[in-house]
């Protein structure tokens, strides 16, 4: 197998590349480097700079590298930005996916793994979110992920592709400091950013129906997420050309951690003990979102290995590499 990994120079993508290449899979990366960083990639992995919206480039890459499977990670992923710029998100996430799938079908590629998101569920009022929990996304980002799943499955059914849709929960941590997330869009790096500036971390809402009043979420270490991609990719490869079909799985730990607990762990790891301040709830935030990880464990024998402290410790090491002033303060 040769795998094309779109968005492979991004935070999650680079971890997936290293996991798959390190396990002996042949990979090639396509990334427009709008948020990706080329130096994240191993020297032996070919990097093609370009967009999934460029059909001519896709045709060339798929043929030149004899690609037999695709891991599609490229796309826009900020919920707030999607509310402000829905047209951008639909164009980038759905029009780009459509062009990629057209090229995949034309090239005879047999396996397609789609990076989806737990945002497809919206804010369901359930203890554990299973893959059968009804989907009701509340942002344009979540809508594009759900529509992307529909498109991937429809293409697979019609053209005989083996497909998989991975619904990530909250991704954190880093396998090495050099691979850490460079943005501050999720709760852990947002806490780091505030503490580095000498400001109090912010908790949005402490009046939820949870044990400490703050929102409860399921967190997954990005290294575990990368290993999950490897397991699913190999499952797809085993089915390609035979019993094609779709696998839809949650990727999480099946354990909830509150925002208050995250804030306390961040204080311990960083040595910064500025108390968090509570602000009003943000629109669209729910009380609890915890995955059922039973399908991934039962069908593919994969379970997460890293706990939340490891996520925070590794994320902090990466943050300090990017922001030396954080360690000095």
Write structural notes for this entry.
This protein folds into 2 domains: 2-171 and 219-251, NAD(P)-binding Rossmann-like Domain (Rossmann fold), CATH 3.40.50.720; 173-218 and 253-328, UDP-galactose 4-epimerase, domain 1, CATH 3.90.25.10. The chain is globular. It starts with a strand and ends with a helix. With 329 residues, it is of the alpha/beta class. The mean pLDDT is 94. It has helices at residues 11-22, 55-64, 79-84, 86-107, 140-159, 187-196, 222-239, 259-270, 294-300, 308-322, 324-328; strands at 2-6, 26-31, 47-49, 69-72, 111-117, 162-168, 170-172, 202-204, 216-221, 246-251, 256-258, 277-279, 288-289. Helix 2 packs parallel to helix 4, helix 6 packs across helix 8 (259-270) and helix 8 (259-270) crosses helix 10 (308-322). The strands form 3 sheets. The protein has a 7-stranded parallel β-sheet, sandwiched between helices. The protein has 11 helices and 13 strands. It is 42% helix and 18% strand.
Keywords for this structure?
single chain; about 325 residues; alpha/beta; Rossmann fold; UDP-galactose 4-epimerase, domain 1; 2 domains; 7-stranded parallel β-sheet; 4-stranded mixed β-sheet; 11 helices; 13 strands
Number of helices: 11
Element-level helix/strand string: EHEEHEHHEHEEHEEHEEHEEHHH
CATH C-level label of the largest domain: Alpha Beta
What is the approximate shape? globular
Helix content: 40-55%
User: What Rg is obtained from the alpha carbons, in whole angstroms?
Assistant: 19 Å
């Amino acid at each position: 197998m040769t795998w094309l990994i779109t968005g492979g120079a991004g935070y999650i993508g680079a971890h997936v590349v290293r996991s798959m290449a390190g396990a002996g899979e042949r990979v090639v990366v396509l990334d427009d480097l709008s948020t990706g960083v080329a130096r994240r990639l191993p020297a032996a992995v070919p990097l093609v700079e370009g967009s999934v919206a460029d059909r001519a480039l896709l045709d060339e890459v798929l043929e030149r590298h004899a690609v037999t499977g695709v891991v599609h990670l490229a796309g826009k992923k900020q919920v707030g930005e999607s509310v402000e710029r829905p047209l951008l998100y639909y164009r980038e996430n759905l029009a780009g996916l459509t062009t990629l799938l057209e090229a995949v079908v034309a090239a005879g590629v047999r396996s397609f793994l789609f990076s989806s998101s737990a945002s497809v569920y919206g804010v369901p009022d359930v203890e554990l979110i299973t893959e059968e929990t009804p989907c009701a996304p509340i942002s344009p980002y979540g809508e594009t992920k759900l529509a992307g799943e529909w498109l991937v499955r429809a293409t697979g059914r019609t053209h005989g592709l083996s497909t998989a849709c991975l619904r990530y929960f909250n991704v954190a941590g880093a396998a090495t400091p050099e691979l850490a997330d460079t943005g501050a869009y999720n709760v852990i790096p947002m806490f780091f950013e505030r503490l580095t500036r000498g400001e109090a971390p912010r908790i949005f809402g402490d009046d939820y129906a949870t044990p400490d009043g703050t929102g409860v979420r399921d967190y997954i270490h990005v290294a575990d997420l990368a290993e999950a991609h490897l397991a699913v990719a190999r499952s797809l490869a085993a089915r390609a050309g035979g019993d094609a079909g779709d696998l839809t799985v949650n990727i999480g730990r099946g354990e909830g951690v509150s925002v208050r607990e995250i804030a306390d762990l961040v204080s311990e790891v960083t040595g910064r003990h500025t108390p968090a301040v509570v602000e009003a709830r943000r629109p669209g935030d729910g009380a609890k979102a915890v995955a059922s990880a039973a399908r991934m464990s039962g069908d593919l024998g994969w379970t997460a290995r890293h706990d939340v402290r490891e996520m925070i410790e590794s994320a902090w090491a990466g943050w300090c590499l990017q922001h030396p002033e954080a360690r000095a303060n």
